[in-house]
Fold:
Amino acid sequence: MSNEFNEDQQKCGFFAAYIRSKRNAIILSGIFIIILSGIFFLYNVNLDAIVFASIICTITVAIYIILDFPKFHQHLNALKHATSNITLTLGSLPSSENDTYKAYENLVRILYESRSELITENIASKRYMEDYYAMWVHQIKVPISAMHMLLHDQPKSSPLNIQLFKIEQYVEMALSYVRLESDSSDYVIKRYDLDSIVKSAVRKYAPLFISKKISLDIADTNIKVNTDEKWLSFVIEQILSNSLKYTPAGKISIFYEAPKTLIIRDTGIGIAPEDIPRIGEKGFTGYNGRTSQKSTGLGLYLCNEILSRLSHAITIQSEVGVGTTVSIDLQTRDMILE
Structure:
């Protein structure tokens, strides 16, 4: 009963829309009937003839409406269906014999073709950028390898090796950015030992800890997490890199809090309160980045994006002059293990 009422209500709505679309013609027809009736009356035509002619005209208009309304209803219904089921083609767009409707349909087709061309150009441009960066990363590794050979007899914590390490990290960041922005999926979700991932990242940054004389306090987590090892390692490395960059002296602590939160805390310069809400925005460097001119604003953006895709979360608390605490919530939802 309710469905029938809704259908009747919908038909009434369509009929009201039809009347609105034809109101000028209906008003004009009424004016013509009044004018003709007035002329007949002035020429002393029998009143019955005037009434009969008016009735005939009204019936003719009514017959036209009865015959034309189903076409209008069908066309409008098809348009509404096409609107609620938009696809990448124009096949669902209803055809019409009305010249005005045809003009609108032609306009829609032109806009659609222009949009399709822009999408194609954008995809081609994006693919070119990805190929270019992939080639650049591949080529830059050759001189980096040569520099490693030239510096093999120097300590890992030597100034030259530290600068070479930073170059490698920037190259890795560029490659990760390209991979992240591409449409291809590069995630392997498994159950991994968190301690193994954390300690691997710490070992990688050991030369920087040594060169800056930053102490490390690391506690075993003794837990396993559902994640992607490569991407989570990248996130932890980026956070360690930031902590080392903005901690001139002191300590970096890594520990675990229940239920599944990895904490990385430093005693660095801290982050201005007004900058914290915008951390993770692409290209945002904040006061520290603008002052030191060492930040690209890309690292934490990548961390935020990666953790979001891994169904993890990141929160940052900081106090200027005291330090920064980064919390990575490693709980997962709707993850598919391989």
About this structure: The chain has a mean pLDDT of 82. Residues 187-338 form a domain with the Heat Shock Protein 90 fold (CATH 3.30.565.10).
